[in-house]
Amino acid sequence: MAAAVSKLMRNQDLIGVAQKIEVVSRFRTTLGLKGRLATRLQPNHPADDPAGIAVAVLDGLLQGAGDAVIGINPASDSIPNCTRLVEALDRLRLEFAMPVQSCVLTHVTNTIRMIEAGAPVDLPFQSIAGTEAANRGFGVDLAVLGEANDAARSLNRGTAGNNVMYFETGQGAPLSADAHHGVDQQTLEVRAYGVARAFDPFLVNTVVGFIGPEYLYDGKQVIRAGLEDHFCAKLLGLPMGCDVCYTNHVEADQDDMDTLMTLLAVAGVNFVICVPGADDVMLSYQTLSFEDGAWLRTTMGKRPAPEFEDWLAGMDLAAGPLALPDLARRMGIPA
Length: 335
Description:
Layout: H1 2-8, H2 11-18, E1 25-26, E2 30-31, E3 38-41, H3 50-62, E4 69-72, H4 79-95, E5 102-104, H5 108-116, E6 125-127, H6 132-137, H7 142-155, E7 166-169, H8 173-176, H9 185-197, E8 203-207, H10 219-235, E9 240-243, H11 254-267, E10 271-275, E11 279-280, E12 285-286, E13 288-289, H12 290-300, H13 306-314, H14 324-330
Parallel strand pairs: 3-4, 3-10, 4-5, 6-7, 7-8, 8-9, 10-13
Antiparallel strand pairs: 1-2, 11-12
Helix pairs in contact: 1-10, 2-10, 2-11, 5-7, 9-10, 10-11
């Protein structure tokens, strides 16, 4: 029903209704409050190099990014490598007393094993879809997701709350897996939101233009899909964010992303994803930059999550990189 309603709405309707809906989630920061816009700091590196990741994290922190999550898509999904990354992010958090949460976006079963081994996991991550067949293709079912949710909550690592799951969706996933049963993309996307809300997640985002032109042909379709996804998720009570993105073989460009990120900010999106220079060098796609996130806050009058905003002020980062040399040295970045 939510998907059907969204198809009848103009873009302004999707924006107007969504901005009235406040969905708040809490872990170490509080997301979704009116007048706030959070960002995921995505410091991916094609070789999972610690110094390269640290440089990207520093770049993001200096622009006020990271209050939604510092989240790494690992180049290698091996459990030892993912554990190394989780431990490095947690050391960084403790070193600077940052009120943030981290996530290494490995398969949820790997995360369960990491928790069992004592790794400092904040948020389990999993891509999900709107049919059982598509979720089997992702290697998950509701029981596995429930196990991950219970395992992470049992650690009680949150300070503001205990929402722990991080889900990612995107129109076209069931179709690309030939697991759509003849049902349209938008309806199945919204069914994925039904899966997500069963676990009271901390973060959900659509990777709106990542799959490619086989599913969303051009910038206009990406913009429309982003607004539909955000509206439907908020209508169903999800703390919804968006990866405002496209791949280079889609008929879209950064102007389209500027349009979508602006419309989503007006619509009250909980968070957006930002990377150095808007170009993810590991996943090879285009998204938003740290500067884009800062521009949205400045232009729209949006503020970071309250706990993170206080930390930025205490670190003198709210006004600019005053402590840059010392910050870089303590993060282990070579001169």
